Amino acid sequence: MACAPSPAAPNSPPPEPQPGRTHTPMATTIAAHQLAEALTQVMPHMAHPTSSTPTLAGVHFANDGAHLHTVATDRHTLAVARRRLHDCEDEWNTTVGAVHIAYLHAWAEAHPTHSDTVDLDLQAGQLTATSTAGRIAVPTMDGVHAPWRALLAKHLDHPCEPVDVSMLDTQYLARWAQAGRHLQITQASPEAPYILAGPDFIGLQMPVRPILQEAPTRAGLAADWATSIGGATGTDVDLPLPADGDAAPAMTEDLLKQVLISAQDLYDVVGGEDRAAIAAHARAGAHAWTAHRLLQVLRVIDPRTTELALADINGELEAGDFPELAFDDAETLGHQPQAWVDSYLAARDAKRDTPTPATV
Q1: Closest of 296, 257, 258, 295 to residue 280, by C-alpha
Q2: Beta bridge pairs of residue 122
Q3: Does residue 245 register a pLDDT over 60?
Q4: For residue 155, with 0-12 CB atoms within 10 Å meaning exposed, 13-18 middle and 19 or more buried, which class applies?
Q5: What is the pLDDT of residues 338-351, one digit of tens each?
Q6: Less Cβ crowding at N or C end of the chain, within 10 Å?
């Protein structure tokens, strides 16, 4: 559907959420937390409302029937996020201005669970979002947004050249923090934009072009610092340390695998006499599923803190000292962990000492 939205009314008041949820005949359905995440990733790249290009002072939505794309740029950086749709009955494009996109973003973030979904319905001059929590309608903007597809295609298809040294403007670095903790970076040539990419995210930032000076080189950089470095060598130096990768995807996979394997093991022993094995498999599956669901919720509520916590947890698992940490935590909380262990060992030893009835 090619929509021709009317311009947003100047100085319009904030939209009021309305209770209830009605069926939208041509709705686009997306998870509420994914809509909020997609907006979080691109909003830092919007142009200022006083920009000479007012259509860039907002977020552009591009629904292609499979993904909802959010796009923002001030011509210095460009950011595009995408999220897979739950359902879509039509394709559309529109832009929402900076003030009203903040209202929509806050409304989407307010949904408490990852299972909450939002229906987006575009009519002339208005984008309406509806969920079980209520409804919000925001005006859309007139005008053409940046040709983001053509820009990405141009620079992704650019032949790669050796890049000795390139420069970037650090005032734009903070924008990328909202895109995710880990981003891939590539550059086709010293004059080409940096391409930054993560899961369902891609962006561009132009390098700084030298004016009235020679382009910097790696050899020149080494020569400039030679007197400060002196004769030092770096063969035995292991700094800076590499950053930890995102443990969440691998941990999620392991937890789901544990649920399924525990369920299969449980099916295999059900009906037998080994009640301890039945209980162990049931408990392992239940605990893995509980951990998986909690991880999902935490990544929705605070994905960056969750990544940092998972990096710590992954380190503890690799070190193998988590039983000692669990013992210390239990004591700190006022429990008696040694009594737990003693009780378990006594019950286990008593079971071992009990003769197994003879079978005929």
Answers
A1: 258
A2: 127
A3: yes
A4: middle
A5: 888 888 778 878 87
A6: C
